[in-house]
Design a protein that fits this description.
The complex is a heterodimer of chains A (about 260) and B (about 100).
Chain A: H1 3-14, E1 18-25, E2 32-35, E3 42-44, H2 48-64, E4 68-72, E5 83-90, E6 95-99, H3 103-114, E7 118-122, E8 139-141, H4 145-152, E9 161-164, H5 169-180, E10 186-189, H6 193-205, H7 210-214, E11 216-217, H8 229-245
Parallel strand pairs in A: 6-7, 6-9, 7-8, 9-10, 10-11
Antiparallel strand pairs in A: 1-2, 1-5, 2-3, 4-5
Chain B: H1 5-13, E1 18-27, E2 37-41, E3 46-48, H2 56-67, E4 74-78, E5 95-102
Antiparallel strand pairs in B: 1-2, 1-5, 2-3, 4-5
Classes of the chains: A alpha/beta (about 260), B alpha+beta (about 100).
Chain lengths: ~260, ~100
């Protein structure tokens, strides 16, 4: 096994960002360059100048989470097409942080794992937030939601999600307040319409602006009519997907246009 | 490719040769995007997928040809508009381009 494959394997296993560039047209066909942030690239596409240009492009694609094929001259010239290079970006998995260690949490954690999320379950109550109750989660944290969120605030971005399943104002308000202080892409909070109306009042009292409160999706999930923890988990994940894609969630049989 | 690692480790540990096929580009409607991957070992075992099941059979054939030295590594294309001698396309009408190579790196 080559050093390059071994390194790729280690980084993929760890969920670390890495890009793999492969010459797919032109010579040397199949040549590879492995690019990771903050480390010199491994391998070569046949010319040092080409390697330098591709490494730079690969880091850009990695940051944007884009996988694509680009064309270059033999020495990395941008406007030439001697070579086609496939740059596959392996961005770290998106994160889902679930607050509240309840039955709905276990179901949501399972569904989120299916979708490729790195899942954290957080609850301040040590008796509920245990590894054995959430073996499917990547991480079980025993802490107050706002305190935990403060520690990961810089890491949460548009691909990530926060689901607040506690429906207890004591925990909901700090969880939502903490979440709106981050750039997280999705914030959902469980509870009936009545619960949410009351929660909105508490959030206002806590000093949240209307704009911040509007970021909270509640009642959580799409209107699938499900009741069980598993059905609710699907409904929450479906809502997260529609928000990412900008689609309606309506049956495809009732709509026109491209499916994907 | 991430999802193939475990099986790839097993195959490589047992000394079997492996071909890797990765989607490098798609046009029109296609179920899996660039980066979707499948791997085939010399015994014909298959992991992963590159479409909704439409072209996998043909990819296995191409991958085995690469392992047997009958086909050089390169891009193969499936779709209704393709000129390749494959009698398969994507049911959904799109086109996919795959890079097939031996995983000997």
């Amino acid at each position: 096994m080559s050093e390059l494959y071994e390194r790729l394997r280690v980084l993929l296993r760890a969920g670390s960002p890495v890009a793999l560039a492969t010459v797919i047209e032109g010579e040397p066909i199949g040549a590879k360059l492995l690019v990771e942030p903050g480390a010199p690239p491994l391998g070569s596409l046949g010319h040092a100048d080409l390697d330098r240009v591709v490494a730079r492009d690969a880091l850009g694609e990695l940051a944007a989470g884009i996988t694509s094929t680009r064309h270059y001259g033999r020495h990395g010239e941008a406007r030439e097409r001697d070579l086609a290079v496939f740059i596959e970006a392996f961005a770290p998995p998106p994160r889902m942080v679930i607050f509240g260690a309840v039955d709905f949490t276990a179901a949501l954690a399972r569904a989120a794992k299916l979708l490729g999320y790195h899942v954290t379950v957080c609850d301040a109550r040590a008796v509920f937030a245990t590894r054995s109750r959430f073996p499917m989660a990547d991480e079980v944290v025993n802490d107050w939601p706002d305190r935990y969120l403060a520690t990961v605030a810089d890491e949460l971005g548009t691909r990530d999600a926060v689901a607040v399943l506690t429906h207890d104002t004591k925990f909901d308000v700090p969880a939502i307040s903490g979440a709106v202080a981050t750039a997280v892409g999705y914030i959902g909070a469980m509870g009936s319409r009545t619960t949410h109306a009351k929660r909105v009042e508490r959030l206002r009292e806590a000093g949240l602006t209307d704009e911040q409160i509007e970021r909270v999706h509640s009642p959580i999930g799409l209107d699938l009519g499900g009741r069980t923890p598993e059905e609710t988990a699907i409904s929450i994940c479906a809502e997260i997907i529609t928000l990412r894609t900008g689609r309606t969630g309506a049956p495809l049989g009732d709509t026109d246009g491209a499916i994907h | 490719m991430r999802e193939l690692l475990e099986d790839l480790d097993r195959w490589r540990e047992s000394g079997r040769r492996v071909a890797l096929a990765r989607v490098v580009a798609t046009e029109g409607s296609s179920p899996r995007g660039a980066g979707a991957a499948m791997a085939v070992n010399e015994s014909g075992e298959v992991i992963g997928s590159v479409s909704g099941g439409c072209v996998e059979g043909a990819v296995v054939g191409a991958a085995l040809e690469v392992l047997e030295g009958k086909r050089p590594p390169g891009v193969i294309t499936f779709g209704y508009s393709d000129d390749e001698a494959f009698s398969v396309g994507l049911t959904c009408g799109g086109t996919i381009h795959l890079f097939v190579e031996e995983l000997d790196w």
